Amino acid sequence: MRIDIITVIPQLLDGPLTHSIVKRAREKGLVEIHVHDLRDFSLDKHRRVDDYAFGGDAGMVMAIEPIQRAISHLTSQRSYDEVIYTSPDGNSYNQQEANRLALADNIIILCGHYKGVDQRIRDHLITREFSIGDYVLTGGELAAAVITDSVIRLLPGAISDETSALTDSFQDGLLAPPVYTRPADYQGWKVPEILLSGHAAKIDQWKHEQSLERTRKLRPDLLEGKEED
Ligand code: ADE
């Protein structure tokens, strides 16, 4: 898989994409990540990529030309499954979307900034628009890092315990059950007996019940239309 990220602040993506599972996935060749500085595609002598908004609104707008040039530069070399735009007014990003994106060969992520991009970019070049939550970040870079991270960990071979990604929260529409490690008794704080029983079927049943209970308590919205009361 190849992920191209277009941004005005490439440095913001250095940290999240150079450690741990993402770093190893890159080293193993499971994913190539290329971060592009949008200013490199500006024809302006000051490398400007924004301009004033028509209509007298406050705030700057990301201009069409550098973005169009950056995207064309990439699409002239290979075809892309999606051209994603990160913005607080995009569709909600979730695990299902991550699962879908993990099947793609090539994706572009354009990080939104300022007041956003000229709407014509969204109308003509963007195929998906994602928000990672109902709050406003200083830019779309952290959202691009979140999307990239969530997709990479799903690539076969990215996580050493192969079943691990399948048992994550949200994979079956439920939150994950609680987990415990040694010691079984820490100063009187005990691990539930059932987990020490060695009875695989009962343990699975317990985990499922715990998942349901957690989801009911913390995220009842996930169960809407699923449970019969
Ligand atoms: N850019 C600013 N806020 C954002 C958000 N919540 N999701 C995606 N991109 C953003």
Architecture of the largest domain, CATH level 2? 3-Layer(aba) Sandwich
The molecules bound to the chains, other than polymers, are: adenine
CATH superfamily of the largest domain: SPOUT methyltransferase, trefoil knot domain
Give the distance, in angstroms, between the N- and C-terminal Cα atoms: 43 Å
**Can you tell me the CATH class of the largest domain?**
Alpha Beta
The residue-averaged pLDDT reads: 95
CATH topology of the largest domain: Alpha/beta knot
Give helix % range. Answer: 25-40%
Write down the domain tally: 2
Structure description:
The chain has 229 residues and is an alpha/beta fold. It folds into two domains: 2-152, 3-Layer(aba) Sandwich (Alpha/beta knot), CATH 3.40.1280; 167-223, Orthogonal Bundle (Trp Operon Repressor, Chain A), CATH 1.10.1270. Helices cover 28% and strands 19% of the residues. The strands form three sheets. The protein has a five-stranded parallel beta sheet, with helices on both faces. α3 (95-101) links the parallel β5 (82-92) and β6. The mean pLDDT is 95. Residues 86-88, 112, 131-133, 135-137, 139-140, 143 line the site of adenine (ADE).
Brief characterization of the structure:
The protein has 229 residues and is α/β, with parallel strands linked by helices. 28% of the residues lie in helices and 19% in strands. It has two domains: 2-152, Alpha/beta knot, CATH 3.40.1280; 167-223, Orthogonal Bundle (Trp Operon Repressor, Chain A).
